[in-house]
Amino acid sequence: MARLKTAVLISGRGTNLQALIGACADPSFPAELCLVVSNRPDAEGLRRAGAAGIATRVIDHKGFADRRGFEAALDAALREARAEFICNAGFMRVLTEWFVERWRDRQINIHPSLLPVFPGLDTHARALAAGVRIAGCTAHFVRTEVDAGPIIAQAAVPVRPTDDEETLAARVLEAEHRIYPRALRLIAEGRVTVVDERVHIEGAAEPRGVLINPADS
Ligand code: GRF
């Protein structure tokens, strides 16, 4: 079966991109990466893509008068690469309705919180300030509202009393690297549908057990 031609949008480090690269390296994975686009020329993720032999493009938003011009160039690059699907992976530009609707249900994002709580920036600081005992991450379809949209997959991790932003972010990031390729796989297998802004996954396995924090001592 043809693999889903997927582009990844990045702005920086690219560890989620790396997780997708790793997953797609398996020929039996149902998606392949056809392009990595960064809006920042210095994004470390560009090097990761280059090392994996994936085509890269820099489309610097600073070179455009407005969002629409930037998005038109982005859209043209995606079409040129024959991308069928987009994964945002640490992509730090807010997208307008024009772009979001053009790629509706064909664009997903990964966010380091259990949405709908803590959308936006400084997620981990806000989770720590709120004193939550369980944190996590969410893979979701992109909508015009930032960090909102039908939820495909989530992973939960415990918050430890000694955590600071860095340690919590690292624990959540590991979970991100597990669920993002999984979300892409489910979509590429054709098992994911969005009905009334909720995601249905055909044959989704039920997780076992409960994550409780504090655990029994
Ligand atoms: C991740 O925490 C992701 O959830 C958020 O931005 C971060 C990007 O990290 N949207 P990386 O570039 O994938 O390493």
Task: Label this structure with key terms.
single chain; about 220 residues; alpha/beta; Rossmann fold; seven-stranded mixed beta sheet; about 30% helix; binds 5-O-phosphono-beta-D-ribofuranosylamine
Would you tell me the overall average pLDDT?
97
Sheet with most strands: 7 strands, mixed
**Distance linking N and C termini:** 50 Å
Q: Which term fits the overall shape?
A: globular
**Radius of gyration using CA atoms only:** 17 Å
The CATH first-level class of the largest domain comes to Alpha Beta
Q: Helicity, in percent? A: 25-40%
- Which structural category fits the helices and strands? alpha/beta
Q: Report the portion of residues in β strands.
A: 15-25%
Tally of structural domains: 2
CATH topology of the largest domain: Rossmann fold
CATH superfamily of the largest domain: Formyl transferase, N-terminal domain
Low-confidence stretches: none
Order of helices and strands: EHEHEHEHEHEEHEE
Are any ligands bound, and if so which?
5-O-phosphono-beta-D-ribofuranosylamine
CATH architecture grouping of the largest domain? 3-Layer(aba) Sandwich
Number of helices: 6
Strand order of the largest sheet: 3-2-1-4-5-6-7
DSSP strand count: 9
Could you explain how this protein is built, in words?
The chain is an alpha/beta fold. It folds into 2 domains: 103 residues, Formyl transferase, N-terminal domain (Rossmann fold, 3-Layer(aba) Sandwich); 95 residues, Formyl transferase, N-terminal domain (Rossmann fold, 3-Layer(aba) Sandwich), CATH 3.40.50. 32% of the residues lie in helices and 24% in strands. It contains 6 helices and 9 strands; from the N terminus they run E-H-E-H-E-H-E-H-E-H-E-E-H-E-E. The strands form 2 sheets. The protein has a 7-stranded mixed beta sheet with strand order 3-2-1-4-5-6-7, with helices on both faces. Strands 8-9 form a two-stranded antiparallel ribbon. The radius of gyration is 17 Å and the shape is globular. The mean pLDDT is 97. The structure holds 5-O-phosphono-beta-D-ribofuranosylamine. The site of 5-O-phosphono-beta-D-ribofuranosylamine has 13 residues, from helix 1, strand 5 and helix 6.
